[in-house]
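Troubleshooting log. The previous run stalled partway through. Resubmitting the same two chains, unchanged.
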Amino acid sequence: MIRQDFHRVDPKRRANLDPRKKQFASSAFKQQDYPHRLNFYDVPPTAEITLEQFEQWAIDRLKILAEIEACSYRNKTAAETATHITPLLQKFLPLSSNTSSSSGSADARLANERQKDHYSHFILRLAFSATEDLRRRFVRAETMLFRFRFQQDDSKEKRAFIESLNLEWEPVGDEEKRKMAEHLVSATPGLRRVDDETWYKVEWERVPELVERRSIFVARGKAYVPGREQLSMIIAEFTARLERALELTSRALPRLDEDDRLTPILNHLSKNFGSADTVYSESEGVVDGAPITAGNIDRLSNHFPLCMRSLHMNLRKNNHLKHFGRLQYTLFLKGIGLSLEECILFWRQSFKGFTDDEFNSRYKYNIRHAYGDVGGDVNRRGRGYLPYSCQKILGDSNTGAGQTHGCPYRHYSVDNLIGLLQSTGVHDKEVLRGVREDVDRTRYHIACNRVFEWAHKSEIKKVKEDGSWNQTDLDTIVHPNTYFKRSYLLKQVGKAPQNA
Amino acid sequence: MPHSMSADGAPSHPNDAEILPDAPNAETTPAEGAGSRVQPNEPAGDKLADLLFDGDDDDEFPSSSAPDAKRAVEASVPAPQPVGVDTDTMLAFYQRLFPFRYLFQWLNHGIIPSPDFGNREFALTLQNDAYLRYQSYATADLFRKDILRMNPSRFEIGPVYNTNPRDRKTLRGGQMKPVSKEMVFDIDLTDYDDIRSCCAKANICEKCWAFVTMAIKVVDAALREDFGFEHILWVYSGRRGAHAWVCDPRARSLPDDRRRAIAGYLDIVRGGSSNGKRVNLKRPLHPHLTRSLDILKHHFAQTTLDDQDTFLSPEQAEHLLSLLPDKTLSDALRRKWESSPGRSSPSKWADIDALAKTGKSSTLNPTTLRDAKQDIVLEYTYPRLDSEVSKKMIHLLKSPFVIHPGTGKICVPIDHRRAEEFNPLTVPTVTELLSEIDSYDAQHPPSHASADHHPEGESSVPNDSDARGSRKLQDYEKTSLKPYVEYFRSFIAALHKEERTGKRERNDETSEAKTECMEF
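Second attempt completed without errors. Output:
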């Protein structure tokens, strides 16, 4: 703990705070001035604010974070998110650059904006440090907000801000640059000549995303970062510091010896940050009255989205699925309302090459675990895992050799995807062309929805005309179980008149 | 901790004096000698540690019981290829051969018991297939004793936790956190089933082991040259794969997202066999891939084309054609190959260039073809890692030197510098090792055992020769396990050396920082 810690009060200031007198001393911190628009939130606020401000500022920031998170769950692109967020930011949490003030530096209006930004951030830290899950989501949303603002900043202020951070970046000398030229060019996508860039040498651990994408040159543990990747490094630094700070906050939280003014507000705040995972409730995918049994899965698989359908086809072809395929499919089946007994029966019948003993020892436990029938207390109480959303399935970036899980739109090569679609009866040239385009532009969920709309064309038209379904019922599908439910219900609607 | 010298150790007391100085014995290479001779730097610690740990050093105590056990074993498992290893063999192995002391030193990063070992999770698979997680041991002795008591069919090594894993129930949920673990990699030949023609599933031969050899070379080069890791232990997994343990301090403390970054960096073969072209790389190639390609090129010619003759079958040839970028070219090739069934892979591979040169296809771009061929080489030779294993710190991985219960083979370390010489088929099985001890003992009656070993000791370290001459030979030294244990020991010595200099640097830093603080 000897390394300089950002959270330590610097020694000179500490001298005033003799621990024995600490509680009687009036805080000697000076008001912070905010020379930069952006803030790494290293120093906590110390001035007093009213209780109303406390609550209002926190709620305003929370609105922004919730919107940002919602955008990411809807798979919106950066540009779409930006257009969505900008007016909201202007309304709830404005943060202007130095150039926007008449004097060209921080004036009172800017200081107020920045104070609000600063305080609201720290209030939400208190509210969201309690559990691992909240911390993770808070970090994610805050990082996205920071990234968004960073990109908007004008380049001069950006530079001044970066300099104020004192990051340990070692510039690469000309000599070394020339020696490494060939490697640097081939490792960095979209770069023509080495001389165009300034390069920094940092520990590779600080730019994990670049390393993972293999878009950076690493040698002997050092990563050679081109100047324009600064964003990625700053973001990583921001995330890392915030994570560490939240960890500390969570440990300090029980000692927040507080009367009942703040705690209720904080609790209220963290509850309002509705988890997008839990937005999908367990019963949502269940279709009432549908005959969901092990024996029916083959027939029902017509209503499955492509990811599940391809798993089903693979299962029928090989009489086996690998672990993650099983997990994804089991959870989906659980989501459509297949009971545990039926589910075990389904897998038992599907795994033809195995004896009962083999099946029981290797596979049964996992199925029961997914249903929350066994496992730790948390797992049982939460009744197992939730069915995977598209977000989750798409996010699983790495489908290794021989794996069949994931999203076909994303993880298959285009030709295989088209082949797969054709084998499930999608022959319309127009649709296939659309799917190709969507996949090229990495809009996988749009491709999936396109196929859905094509397959249920007449039914959708019908329910729209007779007004029995409104627009929200036909919103973009972002969950495989929604796909099934909607598909099933639409086909019922289509069938109903014939029966009547 | 006098209790560590209990019952088992008791008979060894008279021998202590002889055994102590020998602990780093019989160096085979100068490097090893240098490594192990570092130990006298800490005379006090050394002595203390030896006092504490010679318990597992003296394998003489079972002299009365072990031969019985072994005789029983030989009677019951006469087959050269044992299908399963019975419990008595297993126990004899743990008693006489398993290098507990080195395993302890490896995980402990020193000789004085530290939390690095004490808070380390072990998971035992018992003979009845029960799986016992969250075991931990304070010292090498306790570790050995418990393994002998439980006699597990194998055991796995997990992470070091911030607290003793055995105390996890006394903590509130989520309080126990993994702090460090070696970064691990797992290569398994089953992932190569679609491109190896010689064997399938659990079987292996020398031909398909070549895939593992090249995987070791590629991954090892990347870890060393790109990430700067130095202490990488490769271990044969006992049947059809290999594990890597990256033991550098820096690698051990990597959080999960950094592990994922390395796994992603190394991973280029994606998707199942149904997913078409599985290697799609951007150009220009990343330096890591250029280097890998250089390593793999001749392996492709040797293994894929010659040994495996992968493209012999029409299905595989068709797959190869589907990977080519130009339709006219692949049509021409298909016609040619259909007219001469049984055309060998090297000829087929040469045909691609030959036909491309004739210029039959006007649309074909030479660069595209070259890139596609590079992609193909990588698809057929590039390591297929089970990346899930590497991504999580808490992942358990089978310990080195345990017996693979299916084959009876020992999970021995592989020297990365001589990866090509490693042959999984000649790795000793437990029954072979035990009979080697017997035949050695038969040839060298106990009274002369030491004298026979004299010359070797004398030549390498003359000063120690007296002590060395009279010391008792370890059981593993009588067997073909010896080189493997010695390699392991030299690996540990190098690791300890780094560990010590690292610590000293840290301490220096600390004292400097302290003085700085004092000035205020």
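Takeaways: The radius of gyration of chain A is 27 Å. Residues 275-279 of chain A have pLDDT under 50 and may be disordered.
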